[in-house]
Design brief:
By secondary structure, the protein is of the alpha/beta class. Helix content is 31%, strand content 23%. The protein contains 16 helices and 23 strands. Strands 1, 2, 3, 4, 5, 21, 22 and 23 form an eight-stranded mixed sheet that branches. The radius of gyration is 23 Å and the shape is globular.
C-alpha cells in the first residue's frame, strides 16, 4: 500500500479541522484527485473508483506538522549514546567510558540534563575514565556540550570545566553533524519514514546549515515522505537574499520543499542556565542575550525587506520582550520560537504584532523540575499555551527534535494533559482542549479544496486519554494523496 496513489478514502470519521462542516459523526467517503480533496460524501452515496483505502470507520485528521525540528541532528541522534537517564556527572562519564569509539575515533553521547545533577560536569571526572579517546556529551537542550581534554584538543577549544556553551557548543554540533552527504541523507530518509509512521506530513527544519542545497539534493534523490520548510541562519542571510529566496517559495517542481524563515537565536536555554530572564537564577546570573536588540532589529529589517519572515528563538522573558521590540521596529512577520517564559503584557503583544508562537508542549513536562528550582523567582508565565490562545495568538506545536522525540501525538498529549507521569498536571490552567491541540498541529482541514494530507487513526483522538494519545495508533499517513505509511 505504501506509495499507492489514492482516489478515495472510504468510511472515515473526521476528528480534526473539517469536522465542523458535517452534520453528524457518521462515516464519510473522501474523494481525492491530483493530490487534493475534491469531495466528501456520506459513505456509499457516491460510487468510488480507482485506488481506495477502506478505513472501516476509523478516524481521520489532517496531516500533522512538527513546527520545530533540527533534521540532521534528529536523524543522527539514533547513532549516538543516549544519556537521558543518567542521574549524575559521574554516571554519565562512566556510561561514555564503556562506549566503543566510532570509526572517526570519537565517542558521542546526547540527551543529558545536568541542571538537577548533584555534581557538576568537569574535566577531571570525564578525563579519568575516557583517557585519550575524544569524548563528547551533548546536553539535551543542545546549548552546551561537555568534552574531555582529548576532544577539546581535537577541536581546538579550551574550557576550564570542559563545557562549551552557546555558539561554541553550536559549532561543535555543526562539526559532529557534518557527516558525508550520503550518510546524512540516508539518515534523514529513515527518520522521515519513522515520522510518517506517527502521522507527520510536514516539518519546519531549523538545521544550522545551508539547507537549500541539502533539501534540493534529497528531493532529487527521491525524498517524498513529508513537506519541509527550511530555515536560513544569519551567517547565510546575504547568500539567501542574493539567491532571491523568499519565504514560501518552492525549491522543487512538486512544491514539497519551501523556503522558511530567517532563524535567529537570541538567548540560551533553561537547562544550560543561559535563557535571558528578568530575575536571576539561584546564584547563576540572569542568562545571556546572544544577539543584542540593535543587531536583532537590523537582521529582521534586512530579512523583511527581502521577503523573508523571521523566527526568533526566545526562551527567557527578557529575550521574548527584546524579540517583540525587534519585530515591532522592523515590521517583520514570523514566529517566536519556544516562548517558555513570557511576561504577562508580552502575551498580548505577540497577538497585536500578528506573530505566531511556535511551542513545544513536552518541554514543559521535561523541564518542570528544573523550572521549579531555577525559575522559582521569575514572574513571567512559564510555558504558556492556553494563555497564548486566549490572547488571540496562533499557536503551533512541535518537538524541537532531537531535544524531545519527533512524535506529534506526544506533543498533543502534553498540551492536553500537562503531565506524563503519575503527578498531577503542571499548571493545568494552561492545558489545551484536544480540538485546540490538533488545530495547532496541522496546516489544513479535511474539506474539499484542501491538500489530501491525511492521517487515519486507530481510535478517536477526541475521546482518548493522555496515555492513549501518546500511543495513538496510526493506520495510514497520506501526503498529496499518496500513502507514505501503512500499518501492517
Amino acid at each position: 500500500m505504501i506509495g499507492a496513489h489514492l482516489d478515495a478514502l472510504r468510511a472515515v470519521r473526521i476528528a480534526g479541522p473539517g469536522r465542523e462542516f458535517l452534520f453528524d459523526d457518521e462515516p464519510v467517503d473522501v474523494l481525492i484527485r491530483e493530490g487534493r480533496i475534491v469531495d466528501i460524501a456520506p459513505t456509499g452515496a457516491v460510487a468510488l473508483h480507482g485506488e481506495v483505502l477502506d478505513a472501516e470507520g476509523s478516524w481521520v485528521v489532517p496531516g500533522l506538522w512538527d513546527h520545530h525540528v533540527h533534521a540532521v541532528q534528529w536523524a543522527l541522534a539514533s547513532d549516538r549514546t543516549w544519556l537521558g537517564d543518567t542521574t549524575s556527572a559521574r554516571e554519565a562519564a562512566s556510561v561514555m567510558a564503556a562506549v566503543p569509539p566510532r570509526r572517526d575515533g570519537r565517542r558521542i553521547g546526547t540527551g543529558f540534563r545536568d541542571a538537577l545533577w548533584p555534581d557538576a560536569p568537569g574535566l577531571p571526572v570525564l578525563d579519568s575514565v575516557t583517557s585519550d579517546v575524544p569524548t563528547y556529551l551533548i546536553n539535551a537542550d543542545v546549548h552546551s556540550v561537555w568534552l574531555n581534554s582529548a576532544a577539546l584538543a581535537r577541536e581546538g577549544f579550551g574550557a576550564p570545566d570542559g563545557v562549551l556553551r552557546e555558539e561554541d557548543a553550536f559549532e561543535i554540533s555543526r562539526r559532529l553533524n557534518a557527516v558525508d552527504q550520503e550518510h546524512a541523507d540516508a539518515a534523514v530518509r529513515t527518520a522521515g519514514e519513522q515520522a510518517a509512521a506517527r502521522g507527520i506530513t510536514g516539518i519546519v527544519d531549523f538545521d544550522m546549515a545551508w539547507n537549500a542545497d541539502a533539501w534540493k539534493r534529497r528531493i532529487s534523490g527521491g525524498f517524498d515522505v513529508h513537506r519541509v520548510e527550511f530555515a536560513v541562519y544569519p551567517s547565510h542571510l546575504e547568500r539567501a537574499i542574493a539567491a532571491g529566496m523568499r519565504t514560501g517559495d518552492a525549491v522543487d517542481e512538486g512544491g514539497l520543499v519551501k523556503v522558511g524563515r530567517l532563524k535567529v537565536i537570541s538567548d540560551g536555554s533553561l537547562g544550560t542556565r543561559t535563557a535571558a530572564c528578568s530575575h536571576p537564577y539561584p546564584g547563576d546570573g540572569y542568562g545571556v542575550m546572544t544577539v543584542d536588540l540593535p543587531e536583532l532589529t537590523d537582521l529582521l529589517t534586512r530579512a523583511a525587506g527581502s521577503g523573508l519572515e523571521a523566527s526568533v528563538h526566545a526562551i527567557g522573558d527578557r529575550a521574548a520582550a527584546a524579540a517583540l521590540d525587534a519585530f515591532a521596529r522592523s515590521g517583520a512577520a514570523g514566529t517566536i520560537e519556544h516562548a517558555q517564559l513570557v511576561r504577562h503584557a508580552d502575551i498580548a503583544r505577540i497577538a497585536r504584532l500578528g506573530l505566531a508562537a511556535s511551542v513545544q508542549p513536552q518541554h514543559a513536562l521535561d523541564d518542570r523540575d528544573m523550572a521549579a528550582r531555577l525559575w522559582v523567582d521569575q514572574t513571567g508565565i512559564a510555558y504558556p499555551l492556553a494563555s497564548l490562545l486566549r490572547a488571540g495568538v496562533e499557536v503551533r506545536l512541535g518537538s524541537d527534535a532531537p531535544v524531545t522525540a519527533l512524535d506529534p501525538w506526544r506533543a498533543i498529549a502534553a498540551a492536553v494533559t500537562r503531565t506524563d507521569d503519575d503527578r498531577e498536571p503542571w499548571q493545568p490552567h494552561e492545558r489545551l482542549s484536544i480540538d485546540e491541540a490538533i488545530a495547532a498541529s496541522v496546516r489544513s482541514a479535511v474539506r474539499p479544496g484542501d491538500p489530501a494530507d491525511l492521517v487515519v487513526c486507530g481510535r478517536d483522538p477526541r475521546t482518548a486519554e493522555g496515555s492513549e494519545l501518546r500511543r495513538m495508533p496510526v493506520d495510514a499517513t497520506i501526503l498529496r494523496g499518496i500513502v507514505t505509511h501503512a500499518a501492517s
